[in-house]
Automatic annotation (TrEMBL):
It comes from Tychaedon coryphoeus. InterPro entries: Kazal_dom, Kazal_dom_sf, MFS_dom, MFS_trans_sf, OATP. It comes from the Eukaryota. The gene is Slco1c1_1. GO terms for molecular function: bile acid transmembrane transporter activity; sodium-independent organic anion transmembrane transporter activity. It is a multi-pass membrane protein. One of its GO terms (biological process) is monoatomic ion transport. PROSITE patterns: KAZAL_2, MFS. This is Solute carrier organic anion transporter family member. Keywords: Cell membrane, Disulfide bond, Glycoprotein, Ion transport, Lipid transport, Membrane, Transmembrane, Transmembrane helix, Transport. The lineage of its organism: Eukaryota, Metazoa, Chordata, Craniata, Vertebrata.
Length: 709
């Protein structure tokens, strides 16, 4: 209003000098300038907000792409990684109420800018442990490292190994133990992600509200749709960035890469996970800069000035009436607070809302758990590298989700689908999506042949206890440790946990080109001539690449099918709530999804996945590290089974929603009539503009939820 007052002053000062015709021309010119400045201001804000949405979606999806890298770098189980992943939602919940309430009364663009700085600080904090932990050490036998000392893998007698080498190795372990024992550096990753959640909080509620307040009414839907479209692009770049960083070794720039004896497909490989967080942090800082220069208020468009509410008029009234209006506004707010409990009772008394809320909570548990551990599943089940896994998810799965969301809205608009039709479409997409998911049980790979774990040294499967099976007659004369993980591939196609357990007594070469000879356990069932092995595990079976291709095809179709039902389901939610309870209902819905799905799902999925581990790594100072080998069949049944069970339960709730709607609907019209007492759905008169308003709210939710995952 400072702009308006200045323009009025300028108008009256010019009016004393210029003729009436000139003054009229002047007022029209100033009005057109005001309109141009309004449009220009809102478009600048739109561009800045779109970039922020891109930045937060990129950093969120990049975190998903580095789940396995973080697990290996910090030697932690999947359940703990799930806690780290859920900390984002915890940070978001800590201040969402404060931001939503007080943010609208303060300088909204600057609050968003401050949120970007906090988000970038959290992203930088996640990467910081890399610079304090020292170099990454993976388990390797000394002969595979560039060394002039020739050591026999099968240490039949410790006198075979030079005393200086043993002492030096033990001294290094003892020196590093004191440092590592007190460094639970994964806590910094958790705190950083928590900080990311806090910083992200004001972006959506304040940004979308700002556009809705100052954009021309007919353009608001288009503007917010543009923001959400850019948000969908963010996860694509996030996973592609994860693919690029996973190719680079974790200590790139600090070590000689020629001395690295593991490849990106090795389960001990850790990529440059920290590099992507530095890039994402810089992008978040750049995204927040424009908001510090944007005004608190923009001139309202002429078409929206007349439709302002009484509380908005209070901003423009003269000083002597201001106290009276403020008092009336405060009384109105007190009246609203007094209606809180009745509103809550009314909302939870709506069976459609409660059933749909339960269906959504269970379905999001299924989706969040599935997407969080999808990279790990692909790596372990199909033997793919982290780089290829992230590339496939970013380039194929995420676009399929985006296209599914768009298709759902397009179908509803083209066929004029009402509330009952939306419920059918949502249920149908969930049913067929999880039905397709069922076929993935047949598209897995068998366990790799690992001596002592999945097969015995005589190529038969062990009975029950795996640990004693690590030792056999062929390696009984060797002084081996059962805790080591330094896999080699024998000529018989079997992977051995270490050269010592394979009974190898000689080696030649260094680094990746090391070859082991005279391995007493290799080829015992066929020929004594096959007694050599090379560094690294054996490849999965010949059928595995074909199964991986089938998995990708079904996975993309499943992602698309499930996403089609997102828009209709959300419209169903909005249409079956009384108009004055809509905002409250959406708040309860979002809160329930975050608390009951976003936080617990990664944790219990991680705990379930940990139960399928066959071989745990060991930390340098003792204790269990990250899992080195999973039971492929058990992992497939646990991962897909848990996802499918949750999805099936959500389908039952969705069926109950459809049954309640059918019970309330009339045979002549699928669109339910309005019923104020029972909180039923809206009438046909509201059906024409649902794509302009409520589908807009859907766009603000589903792309964020699905693509962030």
């Amino acid at each position: 209003m400072e702009i308006s007052s200045k323009e009025n002053t300028h108008f009256f000062s010019n009016n004393t000098v210029l003729p009436v015709d000139r003054s009229s021309f002047k007022s029209e010119s100033s009005a057109s300038k005001e309109k141009q400045s309004c449009c220009g201001g809102i478009k600048i804000f739109l561009g800045a907000l779109s970039f922020v949405y891109f930045a937060k979606a990129l950093s969120g999806s990049y975190l998903k792409s580095t789940i396995t890298q973080i697990e290996r770098r910090f030697d932690i189980p999947s359940s703990l990684v799930g806690v780290i992943d859920g900390s984002f939602e915890i940070g978001n919940l800590l201040i969402i109420i404060l931001v939503s309430y007080f943010g609208a009364k303060l300088h909204r663009p600057r609050i968003i800018g401050a949120g970007c700085l906090i988000m970038s600080a959290g992203t930088f904090l996640i990467a910081m442990p890399q610079f304090f932990m020292g170099r990454y050490r993976y388990e390797r036998f000394p002969s595979t490292i560039n060394s002039t000392v020739s050591i026999s893998p099968c240490l039949q007698d410790k006198s075979q190994t030079p005393l200086s080498a043993l002492e030096k190795s033990q001294a290094k372990i003892n020196a590093g133990c004191e440092k590592e024992a007190g460094s639970s550096m994964w806590i910094y990753v958790l705190l950083g992600n928590l900080l990311r959640g806090i910083g992200e909080t004001p972006i959506q509620p304040l940004g979308i509200a700002y556009i809705d307040d100052y954009a021309v009414e007919e353009n608001a839907a288009l503007y917010i749709g543009c923001v959400q479209t850019v948000a969908i692009i963010g996860p694509i770049f996030g996973f592609l960035l994860g693919s690029l960083c996973a190719k680079l070794y974790v200590d790139i720039g600090f070590v000689d890469l020629d001395s690295i004896t593991i490849s990106p497909k090795d389960v001990q490989w850790v990529g440059a996970w920290w590099l992507g967080y530095l890039i994402a942090g810089v992008i978040s800082v750049l995204a927040g800069i424009p908001f510090w220069f944007l005004p608190k208020h923009l001139p309202k468009p002429e078409s929206r000035k007349d439709s302002s509410t009484s509380s908005e008029h209070c901003k423009f009234i003269i000083e002597e009436n201001k106290d009276q209006c403020t008092s009336a506004w405060q009384q109105a707010k007190l009246a609203e607070m007094a209606k809180f409990l009745p509103s809550l009772k009314n909302l939870f008394g709506n069976p459609v809302y409660i059933l749909y809320l339960c269906a959504s909570i269970i379905q999001f548990n299924s989706l969040i758990g599935m997407v969080t551990y999808k990279p790990k599943y692909i790596e372990q089940q199909y033997g793919q590298s982290s780089s290829k896994t992230n590339f496939v998810i970013g380039l194929i799965n995420i676009p399929a989700v985006a296209f599914g969301i768009f298709s759902g809205g397009l179908i509803m608009k083209k066929f004029g689908i009402g509330v009952l039709g939306a419920a059918k479409l949502s249920l149908g997409s969930s049913f067929f999506g999880y039905l397709l998911l069922l076929s993935l049980f047949a598209m897995g790979c068998e366990n790799s042949d690992v001596a002592g774990l999945t097969v015995s040294y005589h190529r038969t499967r062990p009975m029950s206890d795996y640990k004693p099976a690590l030792f056999s007659e062929c390696n009984s004369g060797c002084s081996c440790s059962k805790d080591d993980w330094d896999p080699i591939c024998g000529e018989d196609g079997v992977t051995y946990i270490s050269a010592c357990l394979a009974g190898c007594r000689a080696s030649s070469g260094t680094g990746k080109s090391t070859v082991f000879f005279n391995c007493s356990c290799v080829g015992t069932s066929e020929s004594s001539q096959s007694s050599s092995a090379v560094v690294g595990p054996c490849q999965k079976g010949n059928e595995c690449p074909k199964m991986f291709l089938y998995f990708l095809i079904i996975s993309v179709i499943t992602s698309y099918t499930l996403s089609v039902g997102g828009t209709p389901g959300y419209i169903l939610l909005l249409r079956c709530i009384k108009p004055h309870l809509k905002s409250f209902a959406l708040g309860i819905y979002t809160l329930a999804i975050r608390v009951l799905a976003g936080i617990p799902a990664p944790v219990y999925f991680g705990v379930a996945i940990d139960t399928t581990c066959l071989k745990w790594g060991s930390k340098r100072c003792g204790g269990r590290g990250a899992c080195r080998l999973y039971d492929s069949s058990a992992l497939r049944y646990v991962y897909l089974g848990l996802t499918l069970v949750l999805g099936t339960v959500s389908i039952f709730f969705s069926t109950a929603v459809l049954w309640v709607l059918r019970k309330r609907s009339s045979p002549q019209d699928e669109t339910l009539s309005a019923n104020g007492e029972r909180g039923a759905c809206g009438t046909k008169s509201r059906k024409d503009n649902f794509l302009n308003s409520d589908q807009l709210i859907q766009s603000a939710y589903w792309p964020e939820k699905e693509t962030r995952l």
